[in-house]
Amino acid sequence: MPRLSLTVDGPARRLDAYLASRLKDRGLSRSALGRLLEAGRILLDGKAAKPSAEIRAGQRVDLDLPEDRPFELVPMEGALTILYEDESCLAVDKPSGLVTHPAKGHWDDTLVNVLAGCGLRLSAGGGEGRPGIVHRLDKETSGVLLLAKTEAARLFLMDQFRTRRTEKTYWALVWGRLPEEQMEVALPIGRDPRRRTRMAVVSEGREASTTFRTLEVLSHVSLVEASPRTGRTHQIRVHLSHLKHPVVGDAVYGGHPENGLPSVLLRNRVREAGRFFLHAHRLTFDSPSGGRIAVLSPLPQEFRDLLEAFRRHG
Asked: Catalytic residue among 138, 192, 250, 286, which?
């Protein structure tokens, strides 16, 4: 991974503004720089920096830049279920294990590559490797993913996500039982100061609010409906982890509680699943073609199988 080192010059200003101006000739957009900052790959005087950090002349900035790679979108064979389609957008049922769009480590094996293999025509305004993308789901999260067919539709839909006019509902299998059957968690989320590759509830983080409703309580686990009102990275997983009821199978935010299960069958089912059990069940939005649309994705088979296993053997 190439590293770029800079010595700050000029008047004091915000770090993100300085870098956007200083590096514009290198093809690094402000959003790309924001992703590097979020990932802890920009250091100010040797320490991970925040976008809002005030910098002054003489300070040192080190950036771990993405590898240079000529981009070519490689079509990939694969079946996708289309849940909704009109003239301006479509919603697909993303399976667990599939990254949304190409990025380091996943250039040729993403949902976007499958879309290219299916010959679907989508907006190119999202940049190379992101045709039609207006939001993302984590690799292991399954469910409804919305895509734009035209640039006008992409901007229209992205504005809905930004202004929180979309309604998102997830189903999650979590360890234990939430303290209340219906509850709201409003706790700020930011980069974890101890592990920069993940997020955490931190006082200086960005506003984050999630409503939870318990649908079913079983021995050891509960099926929970989660409705995020904001769109922070890993928001549902972080809030549930903070409540000490992490998503089943989430090694990053939950560790391995399955080790304490009395049933060998259940322990093996969780370990061998290859995913955490979070599913984007419903997305409601205004279509650029007109009308308020609600798209539903049923629980995938492996989710239903594990839920049934807990019902029988928990």
From this structure: 138
